[in-house]
Amino acid sequence: MIHKKWIAIAAVSFLLTACGDDTNTSTTEEKETKNVEGNTETEKQEENVEKEEVEEIEEVEEVVEQVEEPQYKVNPANWAVQPILDADEKVVLVTIDDAPDKHSLEMAETLKSQDIPAIFFVNGHFLETDEKKQQLKKIHEMGFMIGNHAYSHQDLKGLTEQQQQEEILKVSEMVEEITGEKPKFFRAPFGSNTDFSKQLVADEKMVLMNWTYGYDWEKQYQDAQTLTDIMVNTEYLNNGANLLMHDRDWTVEALPGIIQGLEDKGYGFVDPEEIEEM
């Protein structure tokens, strides 16, 4: 069930009430005035008013459909996504790190073809060329969420507070310049945060996120077959699992099989837009 914001619903109710009042403003004199086609001027006016009312109501209803309550939240204890109220429990979240390196656009196209939502976490150093900027823009225009993965993929624990700030804020600025939106999520390189980075992320109204499991950086899983098998059959696959994958040769090859395997097990996919914001 989708829970709509009460303000938007109230707006529809108000508009309907207002529309009802406007239709009773005709005068007796107008009702008796005939045009050359045999219709009264009032009838024409009422037709126009009704048409405008319908258009306005449809516009407001469209806004209501777009305004949805969050369906999930991130659990900082294990980084899984948890349902709010009656949202589906048997779901996973797909995330792709180190975008847009070599295969992010292809991975986005694969996910888009199967209507699978995902977050692409961006390293700023990949966005220094016009080609990569255009790739990121295309990924965003395809409907995917763009996350902040710091500028140069350094362990934040080895940086000063000033350096950490630059690593994080620079990426947010770059992403906003390219896509028109600031990142909603932040994932630290290596999942390594500091007290300073956590506070900065909170101050920037981003959601801090790590992952539940991932394998594609481990040597034994750097081929499509073994990676597909472990991603689908690992003991860590549970409701709300936050799946970590990377822009890698073997991962782009394994991605269709991973998605199919998850679907075969009955899992749905969380839309990052439905995750509770800060």
Structure description:
With 278 residues, the chain is α/β, with parallel strands linked by helices. It folds into two domains: 6-66; 72-274, Glycoside hydrolase/deacetylase (TIM Barrel, Alpha-Beta Barrel). Helix content is 44%, strand content 13%. The protein is built from nine helices and nine strands. The strands form three sheets. Strands 3, 4, 5, 8 and 9 form a five-stranded parallel sheet that branches. It has a two-stranded antiparallel ribbon with strand order 1-2. A two-stranded parallel sheet has the order 6-7. It is globular, with a radius of gyration of 25 Å. 33% of the residues are buried. Mean pLDDT is 85; it is low at 1-36 and 63-67.
Could you give a quick summary of the protein structure above?
By secondary structure, the chain is of the alpha/beta class. It is built from 9 helices and 9 strands.
